[in-house]
Amino acid sequence: MGSLQLQDFVAGLVGGIASVVVGHPLDTVKTRLQAGQGYGNTLKCFLTVYRNESVTGFFKGMSFPMATTGLYSSVVFGVFSSTQRFLGQLRHGDAAAAPSLADMTVASSVAGFVSVAIGTPVDLVKIRLQMQTQPYSKANVKLKPTAPGSPMYRGPIHCFWTILQKEGIAGIYRGTVAMLLRDVPGYCVYFIPYAVFCDWATPEGCISPSPFSVWLAGGVAGAISWGLCTPMDVVKSRLQADGVYLNQYKGTLDCILQSYQNEGLKVFFRGLTVNTVRGFPSSAAMFLGYELSLKAMKRGQTETNP
């Protein structure tokens, strides 16, 4: 692996950790809204979690994504940047050539495909831990022996092994199709708007965008991406939350049909507000961490090799 590729992977790691720290509390609210019952709107969900579980309730399942999302983001940014350079060399004869819209679309799609292999198990464990105390109506579901409100998993490792033992590899990758349908187009409307807004926010004559430009462009890109991807994010969250106390859905299509039949079209926009709001600070932290660490590594390399 060349130095440029290594720098992209390391910078992605830093950005991923930053995004988890900033975005996890709102991510918990989003998951409860999309996959839980009895929470109502965003404000009611926020107040219910705080009243029943205090501040710690917003950080349920955070240790696992903290340890793994850095790796996940490292792969996403590394694959995206490496693919862009490969396309630049292939199409323009220069790996450093400014990428075209088509180049960015292909690179975003490839990053989305590759990321799902890591992201699906991470999201599954995170959502299962976030949903352990969800309220369930005992009248219409046959529950597993563990009572709702009582923790089924002792932590992320126990959660992972429990799912693996009971459901096998297929259980660990539950929701993969929904995640592909979310992430492949999702990364296209993530990286491309970021590049557009970054250029727009950077004054003429500047070689690189300022930290504020990066923060603003990253935040706007995140809000757009998460807002547009909310319908499939709802399906993915429901599929992955399914199985904590019961098994309701047979697959992605069945989840879509059952959700629509039971709750109407509006169910696919559940969590839209919190998704969009969370997308701004989380993605702003992601891109800022990525760009600043990348710049620091390049500066250090220049000083080491004048």
From TrEMBL:
Keywords assigned: Membrane, Mitochondrion, Mitochondrion inner membrane, Repeat, Transmembrane, Transmembrane helix, Transport
Keyword Protein biosynthesis: no
Membrane topology term: Multi-pass membrane protein
Full protein name: Solute carrier family 25 member 48
PROSITE patterns in UniProt: SOLCAR
Ranges for the Solcar repeats: 3-86, 99-200, 209-296
Localization: Mitochondrion inner membrane
SUPFAM superfamilies: Mitochondrial carrier (SSF103506)
Family of this protein: Belongs to the mitochondrial carrier (TC 2.A.29) family.
Species annotation: Lepidothrix coronata
Keyword Metal-binding among UniProt keywords: no
Gene Ontology MF term list: transmembrane transporter activity
Signal sequence segment: none
Gene3D superfamilies (alphabetical): Mitochondrial carrier domain
Pfam short name (any one): Mito_carr
